[in-house]
Specification:
Oligomer: single chain
Low-confidence stretches: none
Cofactor: pyridoxal 5'-phosphate
InterPro entries: DiNH2opropionate_NH3_lyase, TrpB-like_PALP, TrpB-like_PALP_sf
Number of strands: 11
Keywords: Lyase, Pyridoxal phosphate
Largest sheet: 7 strands, mixed
CATH architecture of the largest domain: 3-Layer(aba) Sandwich
Mean pLDDT: 96
Distance between the termini: 32 Å
Domain Tryptophan synthase beta chain-like PALP: 39-357
Number of domains: 2
Protein name: Diaminopropionate ammonia-lyase
Structural class: alpha/beta
Strand content: 5-15%
CATH class of the largest domain: Alpha Beta
Length: 399
């Protein structure tokens, strides 16, 4: 399914709050924060000229977030960043003076962090980031996971010392349970989705994501003409689209949001022109994107600066994992998890449909940008789908 953005807000400037959250000054602050992370390094921007030639476009670039901060996902930029920001803000309030990132490991700051507990719901990757952030500062983390989160992903979060709480039902059920429990116990919720009255912290999470698009623009010889970004609740799509709109202005690329067909909350929201909750269907293999309600902040941004919305099917997600693991014409292999290659899957589906291709003005001069949002965060599932382990794929090099 594919639709152009025909909402009344399309093309309008961002809300001033969102512009402040995702603008240049904020993004520079995120990069300053990252310089104080021990294992920080810019993730690679991978060119796929063989695939670009086969599809008939000028370039395809993949920002590989599977290598981000040791967590295997772009989510490493959001949850941990928000936790650290909130600890420093609380320390500033208690100490009566601003607390700087350079003081993060001081005895004073760690003593304050030790009194704080951060809670969130997760499909896997966001919870891992929040748990890592809490461990870094000496705080506690309580992570709520729904029935569909694999034991392997739960274990990957628990290794950061987080308390793991299983919730019956879906991701959205775990969001509600986390919010209710946190309210009862005076914990701080660090969610990557937002709801009425709860916007600032999800905004900080999205602010962390600006680092990946800022890096990508530096790494490209020319900015992209088209961007395809996958969406769960919409956080990364909104962060990338918002930052590009603010920094590139009239030269911003055509931006398409890609949803799983089985959890297409943003597609249906765009279709309706207002936030909607979609009914639960069969689980999707795109587990990190299995969300049935959009983030209100993300929708506020995307309604203005996303140009189109589309869905991909289960077989599209699986096919792109295998295609990236078995590259063509000398392209490097890319390890993409079940949700990692969905933006690329959306582009390939759009390029293969003459009507969609024309609607998005994709041609031989187009420069495509996508984000591999996760590596093999569930190695067992990756091997099951691709037929080889991540190490085996990389050791074999190009096809």
């Amino acid at each position: 399914m594919f639709i152009l953005n025909t909402t009344a807000d399309h093309g309008h400037p961002l809300d001033p709050t969102d512009a402040n959250t995702l603008g240049l000054a904020a993004a520079e602050g995120v990069e300053r924060h990252l310089r104080h992370r021990d294992n920080h390094a810019e993730t690679p921007l991978i060119a796929l000229p063989g695939l670009a030639g086969a599809v008939g476009v000028a370039a395809i670039h993949v920002k590989d977030e599977g290598q981000r901060l040791g967590l295997g996902s772009f989510k490493a930029l959001g949850g941990a960043y928000a936790v650290i920001r909130l600890v420093l803000e609380e320390a500033g309030a208690r100490l009566g003076r601003p607390a700087d990132i350079e003081e993060l490991h001081s005895r004073e700051i760690r003593a304050i962090a030790g009194t704080m507990t951060f809670a969130c719901a997760t499909d896997g990757n966001h919870g891992r980031s929040v748990a890592q952030g809490a461990q870094l500062v000496g705080a506690r983390a309580a992570i709520f996971v729904h029935a569909g989160v694999s034991d392997e992903r739960v274990a990957a979060i628990a290794r950061f010392g987080a308390e793991m709480i299983r919730v019956a039902g879906s991701y959205d059920d775990s969001v509600r349970e986390a919010a209710q429990t946190a309210k009862e116990r005076a914990w701080t919720v660090v969610s990557d989705t937002s709801w009425p009255g709860y916007e600032r912290i999800p905004g900080l999470v999205m602010q962390g994501y600006t680092a990946l698009v800022r890096e990508a623009l530096r790494q490209m010889a020319e900015p992209p003409t088209h961007v395809f970004i996958q969406a769960g609740v919409g956080g990364i799509a909104a962060a990338v689209a918002g930052y590009l709109a603010l920094t590139l202005g009239e030269q911003r690329p055509v931006f398409t949001v890609v949803d799983p067909a089985r959890a297409a909350c943003l597609f249906e929201t765009a279709k309706a022109g207002h936030p909607v909750t979609v009914p639960h269907d069969e689980p999707t293999v795109m587990a990190m994107l299995e969300c049935y309600e959009p983030s209100l902040v993300a929708w506020r941004i995307l309604s203005r600066v996303a140009d189109a919305f589309m869905t991909v099917d289960e077989e599209d997600a699986v096919a792109v994992m295998r295609r990236l693991a078995n590259p063509v014409d000398g392209d490097p292999a890319v390890i993409a998890g079940e949700s990692g290659g969905v933006g690329l899957a959306g582009f390939l589906k759009a390029a293969a449909d003459p009507a969609v291709k024309a609607a998005l003005s994709i041609d031989a001069t187009s420069r495509i940008f996508v984000v591999n949002t996760e590596g093999a965060t569930d190695p067992g599932k990756y091997r099951e789908i691709v037929g080889r382990s991540p190490a085996e794929v990389l050791s074999e090099g190009v096809a």
